Amino acid sequence: MFRKSRAHFDVIFTLAWRYLWRNHRRTLIMLAAITVGVWAMIFMTALMRGMVDDMLLNGIRNLPGEIQIHHPQYRDDPSINNSIDPPDKRLLQALQIPEVQAWTGRVRVPAVISSERDSRGITLLGIEPESEVRLSFDLDSIAAGRFLKNSSDHGLVIGAKLAERLETRLGKRVVIMSQDPDNNIVDRGFRVVGIYKAKMASLEELYVYAGLETVQKLLHLDDQISEIAITGENYRNTANWYPQIKQATGENLQTLPWYEADTYLGAMLAMMDGFVLVWIIVIFLALSFGLVNTLVMAVFERTREIGLMQALGMHPTMILYQILMESFLLLFIGLLIGNVLAVSTIIPLQDGIDISAVAQGMEMMGSSSMLYPALKLNDILLANSIVIVLGLLTSLLPAWHAAQLNPIEALGKD
Amino acid sequence: MNAIVCKDLCKTFKQGEEIITGLNNVSIIIEKGDFVCLSGPSGSGKTTLLNAIGGLDTPDSGEISIGDIRIDKLGKGALADMRLHNIGFVFQAYNLIPVLTARENVEFVMQVSGMSAAERSQKSHAILKEVGLEGMEDRRPAQLSGGQQQRVAVARAIVSQPTLILADEPTANLDSVASSQLMDLFTQLNRHHHITFVIATHDIRVMKYAKRLIGMEDGKIISDQINNDQTINVQTVNNKAQ
Question: Rounded to whole angstroms, how far apart are CA atoms A97 and A176?
């Protein structure tokens, strides 16, 4: 049985391989088309993934945190009156699970910042510097001065863009004005101790960092905070550990994963997965016309020889397998070269592609000025599987046609 | 023992609006080890009869048996199996697979029937030597002369030791020397291996090798005679063919 199958495989493979190269020019053209198609599938998907990952990460960074715990009314009215207590014992225990990479509690209130030249509406973030750095703040983004030392630091860290708007600079004093829980205006002078650069210029104008205790004192908040933000290792896995946190917080607080806190981001992730699939299929459809044409021509050219093989006793199924094998070899070689080409063009771009020429436009979509292609194994497997599976399905028609040829009619063809 | 039994075979073809009779109630019995020539003018039905016997074409009515097998009742796959194991074909236009070498062409049938590589190699080497093509095993058909190609086709037809060889105008594209060599080979195979030969031909040089001559016209058998000295009795048939 094995010997027979082996002999059949050998004859099918030999015929498919030799016929593939009989018209080598046509085969090379088709191979080039498959290679370019596969390269485009993987390369463009990596670029799109990179862009969307960046948009999602920036979006999550804006929240920031993959899971957020708030007062139930905070999202409708992010005022100081909707503050919450720091994490209780039960929640602190839940935050010990290995999936949690970092967490922090912060005060987040709308405020006004004034320099001697100008005033701006901002979001004041009262933070624990140590945990905030673990969670979201990148110390390399400090362009001048320093980051906050501790939660009782009296300094202020503002964005470069905001400093430019306020016409202020490092070491200068600014005034922060907001409301306390009794709706009284509270204000305090701060010295600018650090200026940061964000990936998105709009964030530089929005977020102003101060020490948590300093802000709590300013706003007469005791130890209350606006939110607890938690982050894990991969934002795509948040759904796996979110229920444990939600269970620990109970019903009195609102616990939301990032894709519910910002439904636009969640929808974007789902849309991206769908878009990648559509993109790969659209490229494949363009390829499939060439593939079918190549196989139809290959069958047409050797109708007589197929008739001969049938006359000599080759089963119609073996004729079918022969054409499918030819298609498989064509697809396999095209995929191999396409994959190598795609990976070798993506790897040199891993340090990012500077798209600052169009970054302002991209920023409106939440993307930063550097685009990092994201080569994902799943995307490569998806592209390869679609090309092989749909390619073979597409080849069934010419293969079936060849298998159904009448030996006498086929032998009579010139 | 009968190798082939055909009973009341009828076959018609449609050519445009016209109905052409390929076989008209043809009945024939060919014994095992016979050497039969079918002769007649073009359109007389000899190739149609050969194709029907070979299971390449199915008759509209009638019965065909090869040995004990009623082949007119078989499906496509079973017919392919029957051809693979029982029949060797030699065609007018050599009909070799152009992408395979002479050795691979000979091995093709054995490979399809599932024979091991070692056995195939041994048999193909021996048979190519027997047909005088030793040293040309790795040449592709385009690198061989017409006579050599036809020898490869014969080697392919006989290598799996079929009980029956059907040849359609096997010498049509060969010169007289190559034709004689081929027919000598056929005769030798018929005598030594007891293979039954049915050859459709116009060629009087081929007919002289036959043990039995069957003349056809308009899809009917018009003459059926034993060629006792295998050199005479062909003139009348040939005259009809002209």
Answer: 37
| A148 and A242 fall within a common domain | yes
Contact criterion met (CB < 8 Å) for B98 and A305: yes
Interface of A with B (CB under 8 A): 3-5, 7-8, 10-11, 14-15, 18-19, 22, 304-305, 308-318, 407-408, 411
Whether residue A194 sits in one domain with residue A159? yes
User: Of A242, A261, A280, which residue constitutes the final position of a domain?
Assistant: A261
Residues A55 and A70 in one domain: no
Asked if A317 and A388 sit in the same domain, the reply is yes
From the list A5, A311, A317, which residue is nearest B89 (CB)?
A311
pLDDT digits (tens, 9 = 90+) for A53-85: 887 777 776 656 788 899 999 888 888 888 999
Instruction: For residues A174 and A172, give the distance between their C-alpha atoms in angstroms, rounded to a whole number.
Output: 7
Residue B193's domain comprises 2-241
Among the partner residues B87, B99, B110, nearest to A22 by beta-carbon distance: B99
- Residue-wise over B172-195: b if at least 16 C-beta within 10 A, else e? eebeeebbebbbebbbebbeeeeb
Which residues form the domain of A329? Answer: 2-59+267-411
Q: Which of A220, A244, A261 is the last residue of a domain?
A: A261
Contact across the interface for B97 and A308, Cβ inside 8 Å: yes
Tokens of B156: 């392919």
Q: Please classify residue A347 by burial: count the beta carbons closer than 10 Å to its beta carbon, then call 0-12 exposed, 13-18 middle and 19+ buried.
A: exposed
Rounded to 5°, the CA angle A128-A92-A62 comes to 45
Q: List pLDDT tens digits, range A294-333.
A: 888 888 888 989 999 999 999 999 999 999 999 999 999 9
% helix, strand, coil for chain A, step of 5: 60, 20, 25
Contact B83 A309 (CB under 8 A): no
Query: For residue B29, what are the contacts with CB-CB under 8 A and spacing of at least 6?
Result: B2, B4, B5, B6
Q: Does one domain contain both A172 and A233?
A: yes
Report which of A373, A83, A396 is spatially closest to residue A225, judged by C-alpha positions.
A83
Q: Are residues A360 and A237 in the same domain?
A: no
What ipTM does this complex have? 0.86
Look up residue A290 and give its amino acid.
G
CATH, residue B189: 3.40.50.300
Are A279 and A300 members of one domain?
Answer: yes
Bridge partner residues of A111 (DSSP): A122
Number of separate domains in chain A: 2
pLDDT digits (tens, 9 = 90+) for B97-111: 999 999 999 999 999
- What H or E segment, with its residue span, contains residue B123? helix B117-130
Task: Look at chain B and report how many structural domains it folds into.
Answer: 1
- Residue pair A236/A66 in contact (Cβ under 8 Å)? The answer is no
Q: Which residue of B has its CA nearest to A403?
A: B76
Task: Report which secondary-structure segment, H or E, holds B155.
Answer: helix B146-159
